[in-house]
Structure formats: C-alpha cells, structure tokens
C-alpha cells in the first residue's frame, strides 16, 4: 500500500502570513504614496488665473468656460485630497456684468466622504444628496494676450461695492415730521431746509445753514424732529444749537429772522438731545459735551448778551442722557434724565433737590402700572408751571392708535397735580 504524505499545516500558515504581510506592505506603501501625492496637491487658483486670448472667440463667457473646465479638472481624480475632490461639475448660468465682471453659477457633485470639500470650496447645499452649488463674481482683464482674473467676489460683495449700492447707502436717510400747525411760532423743515414761522405757517423764513448745523447727526443722517424745549422761536429771540467744525454754537435772530448771527458757546460738543431756555436775563443752552460707552454727558451754559458764555453747575458732574432741561427763571431749573425722578434748583444751580415724577393714582389703578415715567418738557403759562411726562422710548400705551402723555400743573413749581392725558402730536410725514 502506498502511504500518502500530508502537507504540513505550518507551511500553509506561513504562506498565509506572507500573503498578509505583502498585502499590508502594499497597503501601507499605497497609503504613504497617496498621502505624499495629496501633500503635494495645490488647488487650482482662482485669483490670478490666466487664459490665453483667442481671436476667434474672445468673449468673457467663452473665456470663463475655458477657465472653469481647467479649474474643475483640477478638483477631480484620486490625486486630489477628499477635502477638495469633486466628482463632476457643470455651469448652470453665466451672467455678464459691467466692466469685465461675470457672475458664475455652477453645480458640483461630491462623494459622501468628501464632505469637507463643501466648506473648503464654500459650496451651498441643495435638495439633492451630495449635490451642491457655488457662485462667484469674477473680473477679467486682458493684458499681453492673456485674460487674467483680478477680482473674486461673492454676489453680495459685488452688489455692495457697486456704485448704485454705494450711492443708496451713502444717501442720508431722514426722518420727516409733519408741521405742528397749532403753534403760531414754530420751526418747520421741508426739502432739506430749516425754516421758522411767526404767523402760524402763512410765511416761512429760512435759517441759514440750519439744516446742516442743527439737524445733521454723527452718522450723516438728519433728524428733523425738534421737540419742545430743543429750540426757541419767539419774536424777541429765535435760537438753535448748531454743531459744526468741532464747535457748539448758538444760531440766533432777535428780529424775527430778518438777520442771523452765530455765537460760539463751546469748543467741542456732540449732537444729542439739546435744550434751550430763555429767562428774564439769560439764555440757557444744555448739550452733550462728552460721549463715552454709549452715554452722552451734558454741560449747561448761559449768557446775558448771547456773546459771552459761562458754565452752569449741574445736579451731577456726570449728568447723562438728558430727556428734559428747562430754566423757568434766572434761579429755577429742572433737569431730568432716563429715570422716574428729576432734579430742581431754586438758587441758580448752587444746590439741587431730587423729586419723584408726579403720577395719577386713577391711571395706575386702571392699568395696574404707571406708563408715564419720562419727563419731556416744562413750560409756564400765566404763572402756572406745566410738566409733560411721556412714556420714553419703550412706551406703547395708546388710545385709538395714538400714544398718550400725561399733563401736570403746579402753582409753586414743586408740587404737581394731574390735569389730563394728552395725545402725542409727534407724527412722521412721508
């Protein structure tokens, strides 16, 4: 009988190990090789890319298509790292713009493991899985037989830098307010001109350069709202606080606008809420003299001849964000800020006392809160002092769609009683 010889199992195992090792080595070498190739990869440039000029077809569209084909090829194939790899691309639309600009809208397909390419290439997702879109605005310039990309923008960036957009955003945006015809003597603004009237609007007199100096805000816009107490319009004195050339000045007339003068009040100053008062012997002007951390800090000045100005002591050296300042006589002044209290002086500013704003118990009982927490104006009529208290910037208490204010009166200028609610006549005009 012939004896069969069996193969030794260790030989099969050794062969398997050898094969495994060979495969492993090959994989490692492939990985190293691929990593090396990927490390040498340079994404096709956009900015500065060049395309030879073709006399037979030299349009911006054809040049862009030639460049895009090269750009796309540079993002396809195994030599491209997955973080930049695209499976295929196509142009959806080309839109030629002015001055050598062209908008490119394209579609790109990627593999699921190439998701980082979405971020690197700034692609936009679509409803289809692994299908994305991209957009550029390119500017081409021809020089020495070559077309070259000299600008790469997003469509939004292109729109922002366009002359039409710049013209629009640089155009001062103005809040227009209707004229209060109930007042015989009042300011009036129309078509970029500041006027005053002394006969209820029958005739208007221009304030020279008043629109620019009085109404222009630091951001280049104009605020045409001149609330009570922000200027003086009377037959004996018409005055506005103006800001120009880094100075604060009084623009005034003492003959009903027949002639106008300017008087420098302060070397400095900032546009903000401004307050003017006229007593028997003085003209008072209060305005922002400093601005820090979003707050305006105020100074008060007075003059007996509208030429020389002296500083007036404030209730607080850092009195800020004023909502109302009014002097009812040479010794009595009221200062209110963004709180439900105010200061009052009876000795020309040598000392001040703080008072709570007046309120009406019936209104509070009816609403469950007090809507009136911001003093807006003080004025006198026939020996009676009146105070108007509004709702501040966040007020929303209205009747028939019109915001309301509270009117109070006082015989001694200290103790105020409720008169009635009045409508806010401030209204924007188109």
TrEMBL record:
Keywords: Membrane, Transmembrane, Transmembrane helix. SUPFAM superfamilies: Oligoxyloglucan reducing end-specific cellobiohydrolase. The chain crosses the membrane at residues 20-38. Gene3D superfamilies: YVTN repeat-like/Quinoprotein amine dehydrogenase. InterPro entries: WD40/YVTN_repeat-like_dom_sf. This is Exo-alpha-sialidase. The lineage of its organism: Bacteria, Bacillati, Bacillota, Clostridia, Lachnospirales.
């Amino acid at each position: 009988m012939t004896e069969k010889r069996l193969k030794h199992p260790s030989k099969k195992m050794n062969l398997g190990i050898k094969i495994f090792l060979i495969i492993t080595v090959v994989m490692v070498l492939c990985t190293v090789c691929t990593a090396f190739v990927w490390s040498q990869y340079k994404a096709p440039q956009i900015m500065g890319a060049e395309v030879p000029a073709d006399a037979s077809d030299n349009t911006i569209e054809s040049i862009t298509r030639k460049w895009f084909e090269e750009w796309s090829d540079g993002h396809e194939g195994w030599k491209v790292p997955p973080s930049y790899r695209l499976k295929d691309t196509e142009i959806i639309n080309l839109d030629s713009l002015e001055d050598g600009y062209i908008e490119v809208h394209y579609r790109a397909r990627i593999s699921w493991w190439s998701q980082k390419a979405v971020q690197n290439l700034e692609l936009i997702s679509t409803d289809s899985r692994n299908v994305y879109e991209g957009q550029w605005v390119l500017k081409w310039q021809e020089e020495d037989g070559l077309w070259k990309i000299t600008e790469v923008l997003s469509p939004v960036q292109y729109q922002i830098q366009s002359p039409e957009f710049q013209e629009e955003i640089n155009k001062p945006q103005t809040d227009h307010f209707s004229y209060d015809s109930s007042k015989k003597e009042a300011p009036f603004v129309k078509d970029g001109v500041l006027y005053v009237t002394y006969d209820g609007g029958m005739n208007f007199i221009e304030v020279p350069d008043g629109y620019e100096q009085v109404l222009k805000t630091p951001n280049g816009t104009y605020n045409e709202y001149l609330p009570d107490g922000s200027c003086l319009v009377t037959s004996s004195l018409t005055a506005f606080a103006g800001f120009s050339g880094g100075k604060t000045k009084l623009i005034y007339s003492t003959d009903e606008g027949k002639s106008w003068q300017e008087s420098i009040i302060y070397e400095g100053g900032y546009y903000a809420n401004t307050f003017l008062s006229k007593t028997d012997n003085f003209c008072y002007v209060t305005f922002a003299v400093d601005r820090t951390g979003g707050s305006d800090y105020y100074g008060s000045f007075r003059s007996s001849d509208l030429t020389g100005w002296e500083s007036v002591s404030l209730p607080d050296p850092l009195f800020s964000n004023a909502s109302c300042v009014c002097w009812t006589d040479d010794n009595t002044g009221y200062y209110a800020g963004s709180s439900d209290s105010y200061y009052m002086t009876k000795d020309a500013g040598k000392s001040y006392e703080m008072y709570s704003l007046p309120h009406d118990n019936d209104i509070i009982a009816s609403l469950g809160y007090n809507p009136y927490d911001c003093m807006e104006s003080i004025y006198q009529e026939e020996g009676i002092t009146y105070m108007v208290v509004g709702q501040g910037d966040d007020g929303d208490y209205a009747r028939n769609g019109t915001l309301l204010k509270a009117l109070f009166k006082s015989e001694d200028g200290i103790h105020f009683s409720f008169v009635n609610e009045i409508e806010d006549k401030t209204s924007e005009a188109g």
